[in-house]
Amino acid sequence: MNKLFAIIGSRRTWAWPYVLFLVLFVLLPLLLIVFYAFTDPEGHFTLQNFVRFFTTSEAVNTFIYSLAIAVLTTLICLLLGYPAAYIMATAEFKTPAVMAMLFILPMWINFLLRTLATVELFNMFSIPLGEGALLYGMCYDFLPFMIYPIYNTLQKMDHSLIEAARDLGANNREVFFKVILPLSTPGIYSGIIMVFMPTVSTFAIAELLTRNKITLFGSLIQRAFGEGGLQMWNYGAALSLIMLIIIGLTSFLGGEENDNTQAGLL
What we know:
- By secondary structure, the chain is mostly helical.
- It is built from 13 helices and no strands.
- α7 runs antiparallel to α10 and α12 (about 215-225) packs antiparallel against α13 (about 235-265).
- It is globular.
- The model has no long low-confidence stretch (mean pLDDT about 85).
């Protein structure tokens, strides 16, 4: 009995469900994507799926356009989210919980429903759907993912550093750019990753807010798997692998730059 309780109480025992989950729903799907990307419908090794992507101008242009939309959406969310997070984190602001709840409330509704509501809002005011509506919908859906990492970082910041900077004669502008902004870099980096990754691969928002007039890279992947049949699965897997590599490189390079920034501050 004591041995049974020892096994149940072991941290390693409770870690096995998470290991199983990661293997079944993370590692195995990734391995399947790699397998399909480097094979043809008959299961033979080939690089033709990647050659097809790089030699198809429509696919390459769609990929570049999707990156541009993702970067622009991330930049807009940063410009809107940082001031909101800063106001919520300041000591003079007495109701950060209320503001946090206001930003959280829309997230309780499925993003497809929010997007459909946005479509109806544009139709109500006779605003044409297109690139502007797409950027608005992207920012509306992913802005909270930018605000909360920055807010958490600012809230946990050591305010004695700000007091020390003021004691040394720094004005408000110098305090912000030399103390607050560098110390909030981890939150900014986390927010950028959390906004950039879903926007660069989304497809439903673009299809709804542009009436299929604008095609993003996620739409190409969705069509390859959903409309192309089994013969297109290999091409869709190659597109997915390209997207994963880009996102992985972005995360790695961003993490390295963030570590160098923190090391410089220390």
